[in-house]
Amino acid sequence: MIETVQYGIMTETPVVVAFVQRLGPSTGGATQGGQGDVLLSEFCTSGGYTIPVFAPSTARECHELTRVAFEWAERLRTPVVLLSDKEVGMTMEGVDFSSLRREPVARRRPAADDASRFATYACDCTEEPPPFAAIGESRRVVATGSAHDSQGRLRKNSPEVIQQLIRLQTKITAHADEMALVRHESAPGAKILILSYGISARAALEACRRLRAAGREASFLQLYTLFPVPQSAVRQAAAECTHVVVAEENLTGLYASVLEPVLAGKQLVRVNRVGAMIGPNEIVSAVEKL
Amino acid sequence: MASYIASGSGVPYCKGCGHLLVLRALGQALESLRLPPQKLAVVTDIGCVGLADSLVLTPHTLHTTHGRSPAFATGLALADSVLGGGLKPVVLMGDGGAMIGVNHLIHAALLNPDVTVLVHNNFLFGMTGGQSSALTPPEFVTSTTPEGNSVPPLDLAQVMLASRASFVARKVTGDRDLSQVIARAIAHPGFALVEVLELCTAYGTRWNPLTGARLREVAADVGYELGIIKESVRPTFGSTYRERAARSRSNPSEPGVAPGRFSGSLARPLGVVLAGTAGEHVQTAARLLCQAALWSGLEVTQKYDSPVTQGTGFSVAEVILSAEPILYTGIHAPDGVLVVSEDGARELQASGVLARVTPETLVFADEQTPLPQLSCRVVRLPFRSKAGASDAALAAVAVWLEKTRAVPLESLWAAVDARFGYDADTVAGKLQQMLEIAYPRK
């Protein structure tokens, strides 16, 4: 996966990787869940490039975020990871089929017909991918996974090549706010924010409801977009809180380590587990200890 | 005549390098075929041969990853056969790439896309310092075999024949008809591989008594067949795919029945665990319960667990039914446990489900299934002997539904009807019999 994802970044090829995590390391556990590949999916490329990562927690969200993943992959001509896990991928549940958006996803921007002026990676804007022409059509395509100029020619360290490399990142970060998808349920006056993603977000929301029923208010934030990190949404949701409880099914709190600098000044509480889903009880007792 | 491949100054190869001779022959082949350049794509692998992109003047080029160029070219050919057709991808790879990507070559040959692969076999990895590859001949000196190679070389042509490649040839760079054979390979409608034995003048000829004239002797020494070894025509994957796609339904089937056909109401969510033996329709029984609940307007989740193998040992399904959206999909304390075999009982004990029953849990178990002492009500019934092993789980679902009224029993009959078709009456008959045993009319 890693080699092909990097190739997709460099050649500006739309790719959607459906990554269904399971218990690791190595061959880990068959038909056992886990959220242990959240950093692997983001940081599997050399050079510090942002790979958009979306995390569904229900069958319905799998459909909706698959659509979102294809939309961004097409629009920005980039690999996108749809990160679920065994418990999301192998649990059947009812979905109202008629309520799902099913019209075709908008396609990547096509190149103008003028074949003589076309260059594979020539782009008039640093926040967008170049217009697309297919191999087999009249415009000549020169595509490569090596560092290249706007014509697709291998070049070493020329200023134009470096501009091309930087554009691969700016076209993603320029749309970070637009890509940020979260579900925020704010409880008035709550000093605690329970934050989660993927399968653990379902337990986190249930924990929130149970706490509320017991007279203890906590706000809830589910991240559908993990990368680019939805920083403003996270900061805003945590603004009034002293503690942020981050629930995720891995050993050390992988995504919490990404959130640490975003939530500087807040106390971060990690709820982690391997080998089984995190249950609402674990999150409730973590909150009760605060 | 338009030139497809450049020669002359600016060529990135050593003096006497075999790659240049193959590229010159490729240029001549393309000129003889007179293909429109926009219908040609040169797909390059990694290594010195991968620098050939810069010499390609008019066709499209795609520079790929090491060993995987045949897979990229296969993708191009398949996409093209769906979108328009007529594209001819030509792969340029070395013996190193062929070794790394031999699996890609095998599957490309099996799929038979309209792709031509030219393997530039100079017996070593040239760009990285002359290391041996799987195609290095015996006693050949490379930087990793300074005393001579002791491993026999892979006969790539034989691998391609075993992979049902429709065109296979092996040539040496000195062959006068090299460009004609390459032209014939490109014109061939399907997967074609031409291996060309050639010189690496940086390492191959420096460390070995090798010349262009001796390449045929190398082939003879290792028992390599030369010339066109196979040429036959079979349908390409693209044409077969197009034909089958046209035959298949254009739209995926829509779910047949809308929710709300029956009315169910639940005061609180219920979690029920079904356990039995793999292959005895435990998951089907759970699925029908979920179907019945969906038709009754409820939310459902169904999880399944089995040993690593699928057709032996236990099979466990966890089902949650709820009037509200279901958040956490695990079942901590089950409301119902339906156990219809010893495999299932053993797994429920091992996974801790039986330890989590409460006095409110209702257990239905086959009369023969051994269970530990439980702190809840256990109802024993002859599920296996009366309904049969393959309908025992479904019988337990029916008995549990009749007791709990979680969803109307009619919705289960409808689900059975939809699932079993002409067998539905037989299955329903067994369930009815089980209900009469469980709840005898007074």
Could you spell the SSE succession of chain B in H and E letters?
HEEHEHHEEEHEHEHHEHEHEEEHEEHHHH
Give the overall form of chain B: elongated
Q: Can you give the mean pLDDT of chain A? A: 96
Residues in helices of chain B, as a percent range: 25-40%
Compute the separation of the termini of chain A in Å: 41 Å
Derived from helix and strand composition plus strand pairing, the structural class of chain A reads alpha/beta
Count of individual beta strands of chain A: 11
Query: What is the mean predicted local confidence, pLDDT of chain B?
Result: 94
**CA gyration radius of chain A, whole angstroms:** 21 Å
Major β-sheet of chain A, in short? Answer: 5 strands, mixed
Oligomer: heterodimer
Care to count the β-strands of chain B?
15
> Which percent range describes the beta-strand content of chain B?
15-25%
Residue ranges of chain A: pLDDT <50 for 5 or more in a row?
Answer: none
Structural shape of chain A: elongated
**pLDDT < 50 stretches of chain B:** none
Number of helical elements of chain A:
10
Strand order of the largest sheet of chain A: 6-8-7-10-11
How much of the sequence lies in strands of chain A comes to 15-25%
Brief summary of the model shown:
The complex is a heterodimer of chains A (290) and B (442). In chain A, the strands form two sheets. Chain A has a five-stranded mixed sheet, with helices on both faces.
